[in-house]
Amino acid sequence: MVDMTLKERFVRSVKGEEVDKVPVCSVTQTGTVDLMELSGTSWPKANYDPELMATLAIAGHEIAGLEAVRYPFCTTVIAETLGCTIAEGSFDTQPYQLDFPCKKKEDIKNISVPEDLLERGNIRSLLGSGSSCAKRISEGDAAGGRISMMLEATEIIRQRIGDDVPLIAGMIGPAATAFYLAGANNYLRWCITDPDELMELMRIGESVCVEYANALYDRGADAVIIIDSEAGPDIFPPPMFESMILPVYKSLTAKLKGLKLLHMCGDATAILEPIAESGFQGVSIEEKVDVAYASQLIGDRVCLIGNVSPSETLLHKSREVIRREAKQCIDDGIGILAPGCGIAPRTPLEHLKAFVAARDEYYQEKGLL
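User: That's the sequence. What structure does it adopt?
Assistant: Structure tokens below.
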């Protein structure tokens, strides 16, 4: 085959078209302490400053050799925009949730998509005066700006990397949005006792994802990956996936105007079939999913992405083991070689380089390069 740019190879892989070799990248978080030190950037500032975010995201490509640039490094942008209280994290911990607006079902009626979502992303008519989290109204400006910052980061990255490197943006999905807004206990309870109320929050999440994702495409992102593990079997009852989650996914993907990917933490085996019918072109799976089985089941309908363990293999094991597991993924039918979830911040740079190198070694050993 003729030489492909990294972007051409990635796009063709997502679409299920023939490539000379599978791409090797990360569709999940890429910020590590080693990359921060070498790029002169660090968390938490790189989560909130578009220039610093761009520099650290690009470092994963330019320094570690990953064949795509993926940003941001956390899953809290939408959650904070919609009223969750978020701690900024530290240099080796991501931002995390402290509080949520829907303490009771009655609070759901006070949740809405900000009218100026893309301009500022602050809270507008988000919480009624009677809500237990009404104080978040006065903190709207603190939440504001994260989406507009992401849009600015998109333009900066695209300008700096040119058009030959794929640019992947991440965001939480409808189920994860509902989980953040309702809190874990309410989410788990309401999916059984009050599914209609929970669905209201998921539809809000869908609306935000559509507007936000399409704005990212407009500014240069090639793909958006929806992080929605709260819809997976480890949290959400699999029998309810097709009745509640699948219709939302189909509605969401029909409105997205770029490459659309899904990431599902945990063992998603039980819902692989409906995922293949959801409209997502690629699905990122953890190491708990058997790649060979998944490839046989849905590999002809959706691009499988993964699934070397970031917390066990990439963080702790030797470079020899990393290479062996990466090559096995390709042998088993993975469409894009990637970590099975977000890269741990303390992952050594040499481990990431071994992971990337394993791809070409595989094809050389097979006499295909």
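The chain has one domain: 6-39+61-74+151-363.
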